[in-house]
Amino acid sequence: MARKRKNPADNWMPSRVRRGKSAFEFLTPDGRTIRLCDFSFTQAEVWVAYEKLLLSYKNEETLAALFNAFFNSPDFLNLSGETQKDYRKYANKLMPVFGKMLPDNIKPEHIRKYMDKRGLKSKTQANREKTLLSRVFGWGYERGLVKINPCKGVRQFKEKARDRYISDKEYNALYSISPIVVKIAMELAYLCLARQADILSLTYSQLSNDGIFIKQGKTGIAQIKAWTDRLHAAIELSHTLPLDKGISSIYVLHQQSGSGYTRDGFNSRWRKAKEEAKIKFPHLNFDFTFHDLKAKGVSDLDGSLSEKQTISGHKNISQTARYDRKINVVPVVGGQKKQ
After folding, report:
1. What is the number of alpha carbons within 13 Å of residue 184 lying toward its C-beta?
2. Span 168-323: which CATH code?
3. Is residue 71 helix, strand or coil?
4. Euclidean distance between CA atoms 84 and 87, whole angstroms
5. Rounded to 10 degrees, what is the CA torsion of 320, 230, 284, 286?
6. So what's the pLDDT on residue 55?
7. pLDDT tens, 287-304?
8. How far is CA 63 from CA 58, 75, 134, 137, 297, in A?
9. Residue 58: pLDDT above 60?
């Protein structure tokens, strides 16, 4: 019940509502003033406006509101387009469970329960969603929007490192039946050790006499991939991609309209090519991902692990080691060369 007012005629007003200079106003707990409604409103209409405001104000304190604030922040907007898309996808899984909760009411045990249930379907996705949740809580904590980050101390599932090495037979078989756009992308990923996002955004302006300039979207490391005959051939193949009459494109991988490919648009071509390869080459295995092409490139490089790190652009040698997947051939007892 609202406290008694100085003016007894105002005792009917809801809590924190007062007469302002030109309208009824609501005083928030943190001292802000919000215009509620005109003086022309009846007492009943003022109460209706008050209830609506309380509902919206309550919603502003939910985890969904915290996520919305993060998604509109410079921290989020400075991320790559693909990362933003992934974060929104993860949020769509989290919101039905946590969205209406007050952030400070979310405890580590709630997150553990979510992880365990989500992990039954996909441990990897459960980890990614928990990582996003922790990032948003961390962002909110730094700005005084939440008291703690309940994700701290909640263990993620152990993920098995990928060790899939694409053999030359598998690579060549898939390449042979793929459409031109997939062929070019395969060659760029393999030869340049490039990520899909960097390939899809590649423009002709990045080509020079020395090679192809690629600044990795994930690490920010910039390199020029020096020309080889095979790399030249891949770029030349891009000039055969069809374009509508009177249209040109800045993108190496472009659609007929001249626009570049989205991740989903390209992945649909990639999946279709693999399905056709499975039918035509049933004796081969095509269970690899597009990202495994980069691992094949690292594995096929000559030189030591440190030399491969320099070429791949990884920030540390342990990353390079995870991509170096070719199984070494070692001698058996009695098979070693004599000095």
Report:
1. 23
2. 1.10.443.10
3. helix
4. 5
5. 50
6. 66
7. 999 999 999 999 999 988
8. 11, 17, 12, 9, 43
9. no
